[in-house]
Model the fold of this input.
Amino acid sequence: MRVTMIGAGYVGLVSGACFADFGHTVTCTDSDGARVAALNRGEIPIFEPGLAELVEVNMRQGRLAFAEAAMDLGHADAVFIAVGTPSRRGDGHADVSFVYDAVRTIAPLLSRSAIVVTKSTVPVGTGDEIERILREKRPDADIAVVSNPEFLREGAAIQDFKHPDRIVVGSDDLRARAILAEIYRPLYLNEPPIIYVSRRTAELIKYAANAFLATKITFINEIADLCEQVGADVQEVARGMGLDNRIGGKFLHAGPGFGGSCFPKDATALLKTAHDHGVALRIVETVSAVNEQRKRAMARKVVTALGGSVRGKTIAVLGLTFKPNTDDTRDSPAIPLITALQDLGAIVRAYDPAGMEQAKAKLETVVYCHSAYAAADGADAVVIATEWERFRALDLARLKSEMAQPVIVDLRNIYRAEKMKRAGFRYVAVGRAGVE
Done:
């Protein structure tokens, strides 16, 4: 099949590379000429494990190409729109202007029977507006508009694309359904269910899924607060809950709150859509509010660990991205944590394996270090803010020797309290009373 991706950002690049690896002929287009030039040189603009190798192999074998302009769309079996939909300034709605601009650009280039597929995360009804624009621009054509939301986790996107839990196809057009089934046919050995629904249902599935996962995270974070007060262990509580197959153990990991490019943005966009339709989503409202409060509250945990004040003290923060295996610092809990510590008078040294360049745009006065041990040099406390694998295997004796005080604040619960005590640390975790 011949596939064109409009947008070579995170979703477009991962999707395009995976489709090419399925054996399809894929062209990824992007309005950013510098990005396209870099991709043609083999330079990947995002950090995603395995992506550079996947792109290189498929470019070399002639199945994947990059172009600045959308050309030869008349020959494409399907045209996927994968441009960004950031939160709109002022009201928090998803900004779909990039989607509509892309549609207006490609409209004259499409064949009369084209299939236009929205990969971008868009509010309910966006597909209807895309269809209206296409009918206005191409009254001679019979173009099908499909919603095919992505469910990719940063850091595991290729695995998720090639081994999906489900594929959602939002369209009542039988021809469009058949094209999407053929595009995803290489996954048949994995037997992922293809769910055929209406376009509006598909658009809402994406938002509802992310809001529910955000709710699980926020729920276990509040239970963690209760555990600290009553003397329980949140990790054991989560395990006891997660073994119930009606609940499941995923996303029941207490920490400093959720972040990233999806959960905060999508929860806000869902709330705005509900408000526009006169529906109160009180659970989602609370989830968003509690999550923002939690990020700021993490600084108080550090302050308490250091006896009530961090003024003039040096804090080493390990991890700046919202999760491991990505360079994405958008809405990362580490950012408000560091800002709060600095407001309280602390000197912050930081290290992240991939996210320091992005963080520099948000945190200019932080001392960025080349390793976890360099960050810990002279530190009164080390704060683990992101659960990178390399932070799980630190040389504790070396770490302690670098520090001014042996205090660890583990916001991701990646260490066992007993081990840290034996190593001579004062160890503060999340939702685990009595481990200090």
User: Anything to note?
Assistant: The chain has two domains: 2-197, 201-436. DSSP finds 17 helices and 14 strands in the chain. The CA atoms of residues 125 and 142 lie 19 Å apart.
